[in-house]
Amino acid sequence: MSCCFRASAQPSAISGTREDKKLTTKLTKALDGFHGTAGVYVRHLKTNRVASVNADSLFPTASMIKVPIMCGIFDKINRGDIKYDQTLLYRDSLKYDNGIVGSFRDSTKIGIPKVIHLMISQSDNTGSLWLQALAGGGATINQWLELNGFKNTKVNSRTPGRKEGQAKYGWGQTTPHEMTELVAMIHDGKAVNAAASERMYRFLGIQFWDGEALSQIPPSIKTAAKSGAVNQAKSEVVAVHAPHGDYVFCITTKNQQDQRWEQDNEGYELIRTIAAIIWQHFEPKSKWKPDPDSRKFWF
């Protein structure tokens, strides 16, 4: 029931923001010529400077939808419907693909925290769909999103009434603006509650897939992130604890001409370019640059 949810400040209601025109110009130039559609939103949390390009347009989330799913699970835990340390029983009927969870033997026992970790760090699809159902399904997660001000972010897959959205956007849909502010809400301790936000933020800080945006940020810098990819769309949302103030950004693409699953896919390259531009803009005195040889160790 809706009375069980706690509404927080809406993304559009964040006050005191002002445009960073120089950064907007840099981002616009970087997106120019991309063979597809791209959008980006960034907010520097200390100064509330923002920059955006197509930031309120709808894009596929791909695996970024696992951030809302995680919020749904923690809301369920907060309301006492499930326990954080609860042990789950895996059944073969849950299998979606051959990821880690999908490779379990029938009747394998696993704790909820480990499934959440696999969903966020490894982007495990079977585990994510399992957690989506455990959270009450896509409709319940969408209700939480709606009441917390995220009007455009939706879980589509396995959600009643969302077939049209799924056909167009896949598992989920969002805008760069909203996905940025959802992670900022977790960063600020305002998603579900402070304790839940802290635990979710720790999960987001453990990433196996770090070859795109994270590869352009010094490894000594704390980050929290979630990426996503399907044939025609690539995306990533990242919070960065930079020396001159934390910032959060989201870069998304859709309708890509380049659908290769290769490291130099145009979408992946754009994400790296945008991440580097934003880092260098806020940290102009940083001497750190990715070692060219490090590329051989990216996924």
Automatic annotation (TrEMBL):
EC code(s) of this entry: 3.5.2.6
Name of protein = beta-lactamase
* Residue span(s) of domain Beta-lactamase class A catalytic: 39-253
Annotated organism of origin: Dyadobacter helix
Q: Which GO terms describe its biological process?
A: beta-lactam antibiotic catabolic process; response to antibiotic
**Coiled coil start-end:** none
User: A Gene Ontology MF term for this entry?
Assistant: beta-lactamase activity
One of its Pfam families is Beta-lactamase2
Q: Which regions span the lipid bilayer?
A: none
Q: Which InterPro entries does the annotation name? A: Beta-lactam/transpept-like, Beta-lactam_cat, Beta-lactam_class-A
Similarity remark: Belongs to the class-A beta-lactamase family.
User: Could you tell me what reaction this enzyme catalyses?
Assistant: a beta-lactam + H2O = a substituted beta-amino acid
